[in-house]
Write a structure and sequence with these properties.
single chain; alpha+beta; Rossmann fold; Methylamine Dehydrogenase, Chain H; four-stranded antiparallel β-sheet; 13 helices; serine-type endopeptidase activity; Serine_Peptidase_S9A; protease; hydrolase
């Protein structure tokens, strides 16, 4: 499988001892964390030479290990690229006299943002992403937000991968950028109704969106007015506007608690008004509906959320009145408000549906589909006074379809079906949803895709994907990339494990903090179930996950290394304990509600220590492991996978390789271009094929 490998890099051991709660731990590889990590995010060239040398040695090693797959990688890339319509365009969404959309051009890596007259006509390209990215090794646009008078846009870009975005303002009459230049932002802005100013979040040195500023066009950033500051480092913050342009919303939240402040849009320098004070464990999200706000919340024990309304003049919690009652087992995922209709997206028994209520008559109806597993997305509308919303539908076999839906007449209009230029026959594939019994009897949903000719006798290789954190649900949607594996005989499986909200909010709660191990045990149970049902065999399973899903990969590798043939861990959050002990890191304080606070709690410390992948590497026969990192990643810092690989290589038994590929010019999301990203996926898939003896 991996023959004639050069000698693997060996990281130096420089022990650092830490003592907390009377417990002492020694970290041999703490030195891989650069002392100047904040500066590295802004300028990767300042990385310590010793650290850079080790990362580059690891890159050389993985290149040697994967050298025999170069032709395969090119073939996979060509296949995946061939399934993408290169000159694709979104269906523009109407707003006032125009309709706004985005497109890609043949050979282009970056989106172009355009508009047309509302009722159709020539495209006017407002922003050419390929032109803006020229000369940059990394470039990612944050979007383009048009002003209420449609005369200009705010647009943002990140040219390092560190997610510090620069904002610019473009005049649409002549496509010139004004002198306004706003550095170190979260990536977007909220316009005032007069289109002469906007609000934005500024990131501090620790990458936290801690302040909201007001910027008047034509003035330097140094003169921007501070509107709001969040002192608690445990909370994120964002700013946005309402459809009616009546309010500016300041949204403050962590993973389980939220708080809103509102500003009248016509009085932008007014003191922000508190809606409902933060209360640990209570979340709410709000939209304007004329003289009332509609608020999605889990208050009053509504675990799967309900919708309440409150008067605009006095929106405090004492005035909240239920309008969509809490229904256990039916999780409300989001909502939208229009002049005559209230809309919400709900997941019941693992499948989504869109609910619509006439605000006057109270009559309700649903939009749903019949496939065994599918994905439904609610785009809504940019306009308030409309009867038409937009949604998308796909399944693992069905390319994405986009519809306009008239909420009054209940008519669906198919706007666009995703094109697969190289061809796709959905009848060649099978999608299924099975339930895997976990260690405690919980039934874990699993979405499956395989070719109709694949033999289900245990001989098929399998890519088993999992995430299982933050309440994130991995949809059973159409994925053209995985067809390159499925067409080669793979079963592609998504494990909807606890820690996500696939079966309601309780499914999330049962996979966080002191219940986190359920996430890992569920994933192992899914692997065992797929084997017992003949879909695959242990040595044929390639487990894959990224970020918090990469933590999952590290945990299951420690807990059950013999259940998997290989592991792919993308930007893996594997140094959980050390990261949660360091409150200077960008995301640590806001993450404590998800994982626990090991600084304050010995119980949290001991529980995290019991599963943290880096801390639990042992002398065992691990399967082949591929770890992927980004040097400027502010979410999962590069040293987490680097330290993990160093310890694995030091302690593991057997000759299965451990590979580390660090993107020296990108962050958490990998390469920024759409085709550059395909090259990275081709590399991962080539590894999955190689470990299954299918690389030729």
């Amino acid at each position: 499988m991996f023959k004639n490998l050069p000698e693997a890099p060996v990281a130096a051991k420089k022990p650092v001892t830490d003592e907390r709660h009377g417990i002492s731990r020694t970290d041999d590889y703490a030195w891989l964390r650069a002392d100047n990590w904040q500066q590295v995010f802004q300028d990767p060239s300042v990385l310590d030479p010793e650290i850079r040398a080790w990362l580059e040695a690891e890159n050389d090693y993985q290149k040697a290990a994967m050298a025999d797959t170069v032709v395969l990688q090119k073939a996979l890339f060509a296949e995946m690229k061939g399934r993408i319509k290169e000159d694709d365009s979104s269906v523009p969404a109407p707003d006032g006299p125009y309709a706004y959309g985005s497109l890609f051009v043949t050979g282009g890596e970056q989106p172009h943002f355009f508009r047309t007259p509302r009722d159709g006509g020539d495209r006017d390209v407002m922003l050419d992403g390929d032109a803006e990215a020229k000369g940059s090794d990394y470039f990612r646009l944050s979007g383009a937000s048009h002003s209420p008078d449609h005369a200009r846009i705010i647009w943002g870009y990140d040219d390092k991968g560190s997610e510090y975005y620069t904002l610019k303002v473009r005049e649409l009459a002549d496509k010139s950028d004004r002198e306004d230049r706003i550095e170190n932002t979260g990536g977007g802005g909220a316009w005032t109704p007069d289109s002469q100013a906007f609000f934005y979040t500024r990131l501090d040195d620790n990458h936290r969106p801690s302040k909201i500023f007001y910027h008047e066009l034509g003035k330097p950033q140094a003169e921007d007015r501070l509107i709001f500051e969040e002192k608690d480092a445990g909370f994120f913050m964002s700013v946005g506007g309402s459809k009616l342009d009546d309010f500016i919303f300041i949204n403050i939240h962590d993973h389980e608690t939220s708080e809103y402040h509102i500003i009248p849009a016509d009085d932008p320098l007014a003191e922000p008004k508190l809606v409902a004070a933060r209360e640990t464990g209570v979340e709410y999200d709000m939209h304007e509906g004329g003289d009332v706000f509609y608020i999605l919340t889990n208050a009053d024990g509504a675990k799967d959320f309900k919708i309440v309304e409150a008067p605009v003049e006095s929106p405090g919690r004492e005035n909240w009145r239920d309008v969509v009652a809490h229904t256990p087992g039916s999780l409300i995922l989001g909502h939208g408000v229009y002049k005559d209709f209230l809309v919400w997206l709900v997941r019941h028994e693992g499948l989504p549906r869109i609910m619509i209520r006439n605000r006057t008559s109270g009559e309700e109806h649903a939009i749903a589909f019949d496939e065994e597993a599918y994905s439904l997305g609610l785009q809504g509308s940019m306009e308030y006074d409309t009867d038409v919303i937009r949604f998308s539908y796909s399944s693992m076999t069905t390319p994405s379809e986009q519809y306009d839906y008239n909420m009054r007449t209940r008519e669906r209009t198919l706007l666009k079906t995703q094109e697969v230029p190289s061809g796709h026959d959905k009848d060649d594939y099978v999608t299924r949803r099975v339930m895997a019994p976990s260690h405690d009897g919980a039934e874990v949903p699993v979405s499956l895709l395989y070719h109709k000719d694949t033999k289900l006798d245990g001989s098929a290789p399998c890519l088993l994907y999992g995430y299982g954190s933050y309440g994130m649900t991995i949809p059973a949607s159409f994925n053209t990339n995985c067809l390159s594996l499925v067409d080669r005989g793979f079963v592609y499986a998504i494990a909807h494990i606890r820690g996500g909200k696939d079966k309601g909010f309780a499914w999330y709660e049962d996979g966080k903090r002191q219940h986190k191990k359920n996430t890992f045990l569920d994933f192992i149970a899914v692997a065992e179930h797929l084997v017992s049902e003949g879909f695959t065999s242990p040595e044929r399973i390639v487990a894959e996950g990224g970020s918090a899903g990469g933590m999952l990969m590290g945990a299951v590798a420690n807990m059950a290394p013999d259940r998997f043939g290989a592991i792919i861990a993308a930007v893996p959050f594997v140094d959980v304990l050390n990261t949660m002990l360091d409150d200077t890191l960008p995301l640590t304080p806001p993450e404590w509600p998800e994982w626990g606070n090991p600084i304050a709690s010995k119980e949290d410390y001991e529980y995290i220590a019991s599963y943290s992948p880096y801390d639990n590497v042992k002398a065992a026969a691990y399967p082949p492991i591929l770890a992927l990192a980004g040097l400027t990643d502010p979410r999962v810092t590069y040293w987490e996978p680097a330290k993990w690989v160093a310890r694995l290589r030091d302690m593991k038994q057997g000759d299965a390789p451990v590979l580390l590929k660090t993107n020296m010019g990108a962050g958490h999301g990998g390469a920024s271009g759409r085709f550059q990203r395909l090259e990275e996926i081709a590399f991962e898939y080539a590894f999955a094929l190689k470990v299954n003896g299918l690389s030729t």
